[in-house]
Amino acid sequence: MSKPLVVWINCYGAWDPEHRPKLENDGYGEYLDGVVDLLLAHKDTVSAVHISGGMYDSQGKTECETTIPELEKRLAAKGVSGWAFMADERSVTSISIVRTFLQAWKNEYPGHDALLVIDEVRYPTNAYALEYLAEKMEMQIPPSDQVLVSIPRPDTHPHSTPEFQAKKLEEMKEKGVEEVEREGMEARKEHLTRKS
Predict the structure, then answer these.
(1) Taking the model in full, what pTM does it have?
(2) From start to end of 103-163, where are the E strands?
């Protein structure tokens, strides 16, 4: 018998077809389709679905506020409804999301399997953060490739390139995961308050 499964989903900006560039929003749509496919493939074992994204968009909504209804709509189109998404709007960087995911897995979901859904290009940095933070928290977890689910997401943002992510990985190794996390939070300050 399979263990119950917790699925934790990273947001990558708001679902906002009216205000985001078309390629960026279409890429996010492809990512959300991949999330839906993953949820449907595991629907018999999923016991909880969390979604992380607390940055505000230009319309004053958080990533979670716009992404959850879009996921519900896409699931409904496949004949599935009633899934309760739990919003985590405190985590706004990849590292802070990995940290929150691991803390919840350890403290709220012992005895569960867990998957963290991420953008494919960010796999190396997320894998490094996952392994580093799990060790710091004294957690025995499966290898990264059994925990991280990477989904392609075409994007025009300069951080969404293999080159940028390789540079970030080097910074994580040189400066430390905590320092890169702190810098990431500092850089996102302007997106952490609701626009009116």
Answers:
(1) 0.94
(2) 113-119, 148-151
Q: Which residue has the higher pLDDT, 1 or 30?
A: 30
Q: Which tokens hold the place of 2?
A: 């399979």
Domain limits of the chain? Answer: 5-191
User: Kind and range of the H or E element at 51?
Assistant: strand 46-52
Contact 32, 63 (CB under 8 A): no
Give the whole-angstrom CA distance, residue 176 versus residue 13.
Answer: 25
Q: Residue 135's pLDDT band (boundaries 50, 70, 90)? A: very high
CATH class of 5-191: alpha beta
CA 191 to chain centre: 17
Task: Count the Cβ atoms, other than its own, within 10 Å of residue 166.
Answer: 13
